[in-house]
Specification:
By secondary structure, this protein is an alpha+beta fold. It contains 25 helices and 22 strands.
């Protein structure tokens, strides 16, 4: 610090040590200058004084002419002045200057100028603004949190409460801030607090409590100083009443779903006991072998065949022999559900998805999770549902009607139809991309008319089954058997079952004869033959019958390529045709067994 000798300041500074004066001056600012009314510099101190070019004994007008006019005004009106962003030519730094008139008791008149580098003040101001922004963000986070937050000191006195805590505990912040948690519990303003547990253990503690009909879980976290002493306790509260109720509803829904699956599985197993696959014809044996082979994979199967051939039974066979046999096989007939309800049945719906949807309901896809979904009559699926089904098959993900949550569902798809899907694609009533997704492994089930060797075992099986179910004994006469074997059964196995049940129930005696058969069976003559030749005198009846039979076989052989086709046309079994051809010595030629 420089002080002009023989000046009033030199006498003043003599009362103190030079070191103390310098420390005081340096503490005031980066540079301190004292001038008398004439502008002479009496004192120059601070680390920036040399950079400013001011020394004791020189004049301010010469050293810093830019500020001398303002100093003169301060001498005149004795008012404090601030010069902002004062700069010196050739210097990079800017300064902020406080100019104050020296008081009378200072022992002299003049002006004291304090210089502070603006860069330092800007840094401080920036830090202050950052701190204020951080405090504002923390306040916004605390107040917007859906969880309740309490902040207490080391003596369990409440410092702050956020709006969520006011709502959860049904209190006002003004009534609890500044008071201890013990006092609040005693007065019944809150039900309990985890603060004391945290104070005692100095560790995180939790408390589950019920208060005013609500369930809450509180977690207290201590804030420690470097010495390990508690300075603050932060308590977070969560109202778990709705979560608890929602969990209970989900558990009940899952239990109902599991129970539903269990019942479905039991019914399917019981149904399978009464339904067996009878395969005697080569075409049927081949179809059954294919079904058993594809059951081991997870590939999508498209089951084709006429109505009533037993496509659902083959779906049961695939399910029973698959790795998903412990999970349910969910069946849906796409043609039996109104078009407006197909999507909600398949994919389920959320509460309020449509008028009358009072609560959410899982779809059949969700119920089949882990198992198999059998889509019978897939050709009847509306185009809008075809799009959504295609999307599900591609990625295994779905969402309920009216919902936004995407669910992953593990389901194997089996589909069936009796219609020609390729024609429907040409007509624009079935999607080509969905057809390719479904037709991964096609499985054709032959009609009854294509599997004549299976007809007699089928008749015997269902006659026995319905006889046991009705607790009676029934059997067919030879004439009734031949009539049934000569019938084509256009309704396939379904029609055969119905006829067997009707014969068992409606026949008057234990023996089922021609009169017990439906008229459309007994009144039909399936044998296509030419008028017999004129009988010659002397030919016995047995021989005439044999010759007539031989002529019919020759005509049928000329018309059909296989014994199965001949048998189907004549209403007998393939074995009967083979036996009679051998009996009459008719060469088989191009006929195939």
């Amino acid at each position: 610090m420089q002080v002009l000798k023989n000046s009033p300041l030199s006498e003043y500074s003599s009362r103190f040590s030079i070191d103390l004066n310098e420390a005081l001056a340096n503490a005031i600012g980066d540079a301190v200058i004292a001038v008398d009314p004439s502008g002479r510099i009496l004192l120059s101190a601070g680390k920036e004084s040399k950079k400013l070019g001011v020394t004791a004994g020189t004049t301010l007008a010469d050293a810093l002419p830019q500020i001398w006019p303002k100093v003169l005004k301060t001498l005149e009106d004795r008012r404090q002045r601030i010069e902002i962003e004062f700069s010196i030519p050739g210097k990079a730094k800017n300064y902020l200057i406080w100019m104050n008139h020296l008081p009378k008791n200072f022992g002299m008149t003049g002006v004291l100028c304090v210089f502070v580098k603006i860069s330092d003040t800007e840094e401080f101001a920036e830090r202050l603004r950052s701190f204020q922004a951080l405090v504002g963000e923390l306040d916004a986070i605390i107040d917007s949190s859906s969880d309740g937050l309490w902040i207490c000191d080391a003596r369990a006195k409440v410092i702050r409460v956020n709006p969520a805590s006011e709502r959860i505990n049904q209190v006002n912040a003004a009534d609890v801030v500044g008071r201890s948690t013990r006092e609040l519990i005693t007065q019944g303003l809150i039900g309990g607090s985890v603060v004391q547990d945290v104070i005692q253990s100095k560790k995180v503690a939790s408390l589950l409590q019920s208060w005013k009909g609500r369930k809450m879980i509180s977690t207290g976290t201590p804030v420690l100083d470097p010495n390990g002493n508690i300075i603050r306790i932060v308590i977070s509260e969560r109202d778990i009443t709705e979560i608890d109720e929602l969990q209970r509803e989900l558990e009940e829904e899952q239990a109902m779903k599991n129970q539903f699956r269990h019942h479905i599985l039991e019914m399917q197993l019981e149904e399978l006991k009464s339904r067996i696959v009878i395969a005697k014809s080569p075409c049927m044996i081949n179809a059954l072998q294919q079904a058993l082979k594809v059951s081991k994979s997870d590939s999508t199967v498209l089951i084709l065949g006429e109505s009533g051939v037993g496509k659902g039974l083959f779906a049961d066979v695939i399910h029973k022999n698959s790795t998903r046999s412990e999970k349910p096989l969910i069946k849906i007939n796409c043609g039996a559900i109104p078009e407006s309800l197909v999507e909600s049945e398949l994919f389920g719906y959320e509460k309020g998805a449509f008028t009358g949807a009072q609560g959410g309901k899982p779809g059949l896809l969700e119920l089949a999770h882990g198992g198999i979904l059998f889509l019978d009559e897939i050709a009847e699926l509306p185009m809008s549902s075809q799009v959504k089904l295609l999307r599900f098959i591609e990625d295994g993900r779905m969402s309920r009607l009216g919902g936004t949550q995407v669910r992953d569902v593990d389901v194997r798809i089996l589909a069936a139809t009796h219609r020609n899907l390729e024609e429907m694609i040409e007509n624009g009533t079935f999607r080509l991309d969905l057809y390719y997704r479904l037709n991964v492994i096609p499985l054709y089930i032959p009609a009854v008319k294509e599997r004549k060797d299976c007809l007699l075992p089928l008749l015997r099986h269902y006659l026995t089954y319905f006889s046991k179910r009705n607790d009676i004994q029934k059997r067919l006469t030879m004439a009734a058997t031949e009539a049934l074997l000569s019938y084509d059964f256009p309704g396939n196995v379904r029609e055969l079952m119905n006829i067997c049940e009707r014969m068992v129930v409606m026949s008057e005696t234990e023996v089922i004869d021609l009169q017990d058969l439906p008229a459309f069976i007994t009144g039909r003559n399936p044998l296509p033959y030419s008028p017999p030749r004129v009988w010659e005198d002397g030919i016995p009846l047995p021989r005439a019958v044999e010759e007539f039979e031989r002529s019919i076989l020759i005509q049928a052989m000329a018309k059909y390529d296989t014994q199965c086709q001949m048998a189907a046309s004549l209403g007998v079994t393939q074995a009967t045709i083979a036996r009679k051809l051998k009996k009459y010595g008719i060469p088989r030629k191009a006929l195939q067994d």
